[in-house]
Design goal:
Elements (H helix, E strand, L loop, with lengths): L7 H6 E3 L5 E4 L12 H7 L2 E3 L2 H11 L4
Antiparallel strand pairs: 1-2, 2-3
């Protein structure tokens, strides 16, 4: 059986932690930042963790060798 291909779009957006959780960068931090509060921008800088049901799908379909 041939190797499975990784979905490259998913590989650029998600990464796996050591315990297998799926990490991603939060949205809304690219432009028009003057109207957002400093507190909101500070929290958007943190990495987000996907919920387990979404993470299962990403790990299985998009990142088979993650």
């Amino acid at each position: 059986m041939p190797k499975m291909k990784t979905k490259k779009s998913a590989a650029k957006r998600y990464s796996l932690t050591g315990t297998g959780k799926v990490k991603y960068k939060k949205m809304n931090l690219r432009h028009i930042l003057t109207k957002r509060s400093s507190k909101r921008k500070m929290h958007l800088r943190e990495a987000g963790i996907l919920s387990e049901d979404s993470a299962r799908r990403i790990r299985k379909q998009m990142l088979p060798y993650g």
